[in-house]
Amino acid sequence: MSGAVPSRAEVLSLFRSLLRTAARFTDYNIREYARRRAIDGFRQRRGLSDPSSVAAAFSDGKSQLEIARRQAVVYSVYAPRVKSVMEVKTV
Amino acid sequence: MAAAAWRSAILRRIRVPVETFSQSGMPAWTHPLRGAAAVRFMSSHDDHLDKTEVIDRVLSVVKSYPGVDPSKMGGLNSLMDSFVLDEQVTPDCHFQKDLGLDSLDTVEIVLALEEEFKLEIPDKEADKIDSCGIAIEYISAHPMAG
Question: Residue limits of the Carrier domain (chain B) (predicted)?
Fold first, then answer.
């Protein structure tokens, strides 16, 4: 049950949503990972032409987006006060 | 010019109240009928970013975009392809036609611009931004650009 083939606009919208959700993570490491994973995942599947695999990849991405959204909220509830050293602007 | 950036940054933070006077020599805001309109306490009319500053920041965001396709990774020769070169980035360069980026890169660049200027660009508007020129126009016209 992979659903309908997404349009180009829908794919780009999913990409944008994933990147926006990634930016909302409070933890530096998870945030950077989510961003990297989204970019890598979309780049690797760039050349997909078979409609069923495109639809499968799209629904895969949508479920990952839902997971990321929930986790961003959960992480923000338990966010530690001390920020990662990578986020320190001035040394 | 750095001096122009300093000037605009300082001017943005100094707000000098201007006192206008009516014919009788009293301050304009004491006029019984039109007084309130002469004082605009909460006006941010001249708060827009300087156009040159917008151009500089937009171009620096585009220049710092790596633009390397990880599926092309394979040895040192891949580092030579598809970096965004400094000379190519002009205030009217098109992301896909001039810089050889694709639609995924365009989405990333628009999000990087959102972060730089602390904006939240809706999807419909973001889809239209596909060149430096359009990005500069949109950001200059946006009241919340910071």
Answer: 52-143
